[in-house]
Amino acid sequence: MIVLGFDTATQATVVGLRLADGSTLQASDDPAPEAHPGHATRLLAMSAELLAQAGIRWSALERIAVGIGPGRFTGLRVGIATARGLAQSLDIELTGVSSLQALALAAAAREPGRAILAVIDARRDEAFAAAYQPSVDFARTRRAGEPLPGEIELPRALGACQLQSIVEELEQRGSPPGQRWLAVGDGAVRFALQLAQAGVEVAAESSGLHAIDPVAVCELGASAASGGSTAQVLPDYRRSPDAALARERPVALGGAAS
Q1: Domain range holding 115?
Q2: Residue 249 φ/ψ, nearest 5 degrees
Q3: What integer best gives the mean pLDDT of the chain?
Q4: Most exposed residue of 23, 24, 72, 99, measured as fewest CB within 10 angstroms of its CB?
Q5: Which CATH number is 131's domain given?
Q6: CA distance 175 to 168
């Protein structure tokens, strides 16, 4: 199956192309932390570049796989809107892929036998996280966003203090006591001190394990269950956007509220 996969849940834009023989091509655009993400301007161009490298046309694609998060709100909207548009215009399948699962899959392949804690920076001094036992079968067929057996989802954004006790929370949710975790992702880098205090090992920044791997996005997309409409592929925000939070806050007129 020829799959174009991409993820825009983090600062980086990553694109992968899985060819019919199982080989893959990939590209990434990872601007500096203070720079504006290039999701809207780079995503389609990077996809076209990979197709050109492979010598195939857009019409050869059989499926689009897109990271659904959790992650940055604007990035997720750009990625999913682009994926929907491509799938509709090409009349091909679209599947959503957990960005945390993609992050963990690449780490598990590099570090076999390790329990993986995938952590994505949620901004606002928080992080999204999910834990994966060594026995997790990432190739298992599943629906978009469906947890895998052996995966422990943390369904909310965690603050720094909560990350300091994350091992205790994982044990409460069924992780074996004494399990040693390897943390990966831009959130693991940002909260390395808190994770270390929790007894979690954070992969070295030079390891390459902290970026979402577009090849993993393609592999998860290829093994996902087919079917469903493009409208069913939705972003996993896991919390309210900033604009919604602002609307929920009381506004004091003319000074302090009475």
Answers
A1: 100-207
A2: -75, 140
A3: 91
A4: 23
A5: 3.30.420.40
A6: 9
